[in-house]
Amino acid sequence: MAAVAALSLSACGGGGDDSKDSDKIAGADNGASTSASPSPKASDDGVDRPEIRLPKDVKNIFEGRKTGDAKKDAVLADNERRIESVDEAITGEAKGYPALKFYSAGDALLSAAKYVEGYRKDGKSFVGTTRYFNRQVTFLKGGAAAVTYCMDDTQTYPKDRKTGKVDRSSGDAPATAKDYIFYNTRLEKNDSGVWQTTRVFSEKAAKECA
Question: Which of 17, 169, 174, 204 has the smallest count of CB within 10 Å of its CB?
Answer without folding.
Answer: 174
